[in-house]
Amino acid sequence: MMRALLLAIGLGLVAALQAQEFPAVGQPLQDLLGRWYLKAMTSDPEIPGKKPESVTPLILKALEGGDLEAQITFLIDGQCQDVTLVLKKTNQPFTFTAYDGKRVVYILPSKVKDHYILYCEGELDGQEVRMAKLVGRDPENNPEALEEFKEVARAKGLNLDIVRPQQSGRKDTCACPGGTTRTLHPAGRGRSSSLRPGRPLLPPPASFPPPGST
């Protein structure tokens, strides 16, 4: 029953994106938890200097009230960046907010089993930035899931120069000569390491209305 439900949602994903709408069918939070592998990503506009060379698995944990905590490590320009982000649930299925409601994150089921597309909208340096990421339960390449991801990127007008970072563990990702680690806690509850404080991969936008306010 659940498989059929996910398939029905997935088949309507691209059409929903083209119509600027998102699936309105609920999904047990439990299905989103655990380890996910970042297989592809893109943005519009392209963010200079922010293409990861390798990434660790994305870990999603449940918090009180239905919120999620996302943890991932990127290797960018020889520097490891540990990112922890709290996603606040909304009254819309698959929809979360970050940075005090100023960024919207949609977790959209793919028609391919054990794959999701993460789509977020926000503002960077005074301009709107939109990003999409393809994640799956295993690190293996899945041509069908990647093709669907490209269709979504095309439907949303995103950059079709898809980034496919190398998969690695935390130890391998940060075992870079002379590399340093920066721990980023956009939710404001963490600490930074020896690197000078820097902005997150996508800093909090100046103004982005929560879902349903427009």
Automatic annotation (TrEMBL):
<dbReference type="InterPro" id="IPR000566">
    <property type="entry name" value="Lipocln_cytosolic_FA-bd_dom"/>
</dbReference>
<dbReference type="Pfam" id="PF00061">
    <property type="entry name" value="Lipocalin"/>
</dbReference>
<dbReference type="InterPro" id="IPR002450">
    <property type="entry name" value="von_Ebner_gland"/>
</dbReference>
<feature type="region of interest" description="Disordered">
    <location>
        <begin position="168"/>
        <end position="214"/>
    </location>
</feature>
<dbReference type="InterPro" id="IPR012674">
    <property type="entry name" value="Calycin"/>
</dbReference>
<dbReference type="GO" id="GO:0005576">
    <property type="term" value="C:extracellular region"/>
</dbReference>
<feature type="compositionally biased region" description="Low complexity">
    <location>
        <begin position="186"/>
        <end position="199"/>
    </location>
</feature>
<protein>
    <submittedName>
        <fullName>Odorant binding protein 2B</fullName>
    </submittedName>
</protein>
<keyword id="KW-0732">Signal</keyword>
<feature type="compositionally biased region" description="Pro residues">
    <location>
        <begin position="200"/>
        <end position="214"/>
    </location>
</feature>
<dbReference type="InterPro" id="IPR002345">
    <property type="entry name" value="Lipocalin"/>
</dbReference>
<feature type="domain" description="Lipocalin/cytosolic fatty-acid binding">
    <location>
        <begin position="34"/>
        <end position="168"/>
    </location>
</feature>
<dbReference type="GO" id="GO:0036094">
    <property type="term" value="F:small molecule binding"/>
</dbReference>
<keyword id="KW-0964">Secreted</keyword>
<keyword id="KW-0813">Transport</keyword>
<comment type="similarity">
    <text>Belongs to the calycin superfamily. Lipocalin family.</text>
</comment>
<feature type="signal peptide">
    <location>
        <begin position="1"/>
        <end position="19"/>
    </location>
</feature>
